[in-house]
């Protein structure tokens, strides 16, 4: 288990759709275009590309203004728990990968973390 401390304490400011293009991601020579979700926090950006679920809130947008109080990843998921009791889970299961990355976190300061 990886304790995802870099994002703990971050407040969600906005949610937008993201686009990623991977060139030759599967050695076919084709461009792989992926639509995901970009969560802008006051401490950085968390981009989700794999399937995800929201528990305790109707949508990601409903979490705007909420703070992450716990975060971790294991073999099956990335789990973000918010101060309002809601949680977001991003699948890390092999069959759920749409592209080469499940998600990534780019802090405003520090190293980018890629979950793949």
Entry keywords:
116 residues, five-stranded antiparallel sheet, mainly beta, single chain
Describe the model.
This protein has one domain (2-115). It contains no helices and ten strands. The protein has strands spanning 2-3, 12-23, 31-41, 44-48, 52-55, 68-73, 77-82, 87-91, 103-107, 113-115. The strands form two sheets. The chain has a five-stranded antiparallel β-sheet with strand order 1-6-7-8-5, with no helix packed on it. Strands 2-3-4-9-10 form a five-stranded antiparallel β-sheet, with no helix packed on it. The two termini are 14 Å apart.
Task: Chart the SSEs and their pairings.
Elements: E1 2-3, E2 12-23, E3 31-41, E4 44-48, E5 52-55, E6 68-73, E7 77-82, E8 87-91, E9 103-107, E10 113-115
Antiparallel strand pairs: 1-6, 2-3, 3-4, 4-9, 5-8, 6-7, 7-8, 9-10
Count the E strands.
Answer: 10
User: Which H/E pattern describes the elements?
Assistant: EEEEEEEEEE
Characterize the overall form: globular
How many domains is the backbone divided into?
A: 1
* Whole-number mean pLDDT: 92
Distance between the termini: 14 Å
Short description:
The protein has 116 residues and is mostly beta strands.
């Amino acid at each position: 288990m990886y304790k995802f401390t870099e994002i703990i304490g971050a407040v969600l400011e906005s949610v937008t759709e993201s686009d990623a293009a991977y060139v030759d991601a599967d050695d076919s020579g084709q461009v792989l275009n992926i639509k995901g979700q970009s969560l802008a926090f006051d401490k950085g950006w968390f981009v989700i590309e794999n399937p995800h679920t929201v528990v305790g809130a109707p949508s990601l947008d409903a979490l705007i203004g909420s703070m992450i109080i716990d975060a971790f990843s294991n073999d099956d998921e990335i789990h973000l728990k918010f101060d309002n009791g809601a949680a977001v889970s991003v699948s890390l299961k092999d069959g759920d990968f749409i592209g080469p990355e499940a998600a990534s976190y780019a802090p405003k300061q520090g190293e980018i973390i890629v979950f793949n």
